[in-house]
Design goal:
By secondary structure, the protein is mainly alpha-helical. The protein contains 10 helices and no strands. Helix 3 packs antiparallel against helix 4.
């Protein structure tokens, strides 16, 4: 997967359990499926748009269960399998080695180095800060990068409908038009004429 945004990985996580089912032996299959469930559970609590003290307690409990399952996966499942670099990683490392004119280091079979499952990373450590961050700054949808990405996507859509001459003025006009349309649609129409006008705005 190249150049994927966070929402793409969210979509993968939500449909991963049935995709992984049956890929491993029974004992390992259960560990993997429970781990995927724990990840999805923690993610669902984190993405809630309204939080209470009870929901934050549930988020803390979900994080503890996720940590326990990650350690179980590391100790009982990961240790059974030998994992190595992907072909793309091998090629990238070899290109870097050539560019730096350095001697090649020890490698595994087929030039692939072993890859370890490491749970002592900052990304996993930062999961424990979510509860405090939500208490201090509000729900995660208030400061997600998706807001800016969606606004950029909207401007790109507006740009396609301009004549490319003085686009800033046209983009500002279309954004104003879109904002007024959303306000009109949010207010219930009082007459048949207003209903028709709001419908007309949505298809312009």
């Amino acid at each position: 997967m190249k150049q994927r945004a966070a929402q793409n990985f969210e979509d993968v996580l939500q449909c991963a359990i049935p995709a992984f089912e049956g890929l491993f032996q029974d004992s390992h299959d259960e560990v993997v499926r429970i781990l995927l469930f724990r990840l999805a559970e923690w993610h669902a609590f984190t993405k809630l748009r309204i939080h209470t003290d009870d929901s934050l307690d549930l988020l803390s409990q979900a994080l503890r269960r996720l940590g326990q399952q990650l350690r179980k996966f590391r100790d009982s499942t990961y240790s059974v399998f030998q994992t190595v670099e992907l072909p793309e990683e091998i090629a990238a490392r070899q290109r870097k080695s050539v560019n730096l004119n350095s001697a090649s280091a020890e490698t595994g079979p087929s030039g692939a180095r072993p890859k370890a499952f490491n749970i002592q990373t900052y990304k996993l450590h930062a999961l424990g800060n979510y509860v405090n961050s939500i208490k201090m700054f509000g729900t995660t949808d208030s400061y997600t990068t998706q807001i800016g990405k969606l606004a950029h996507r909207l401007l790109k859509m507006f740009y396609q409908s301009t004549n490319k001459q003085d686009p800033l003025k046209q983009l500002a006009s279309k954004e104003t038009h879109s904002h007024q349309t959303s306000q009109n649609l949010a207010r219930p129409a009082t007459t048949l004429l207003e209903t028709y006008y709001c419908w007309k705005l949505t298809i312009v």
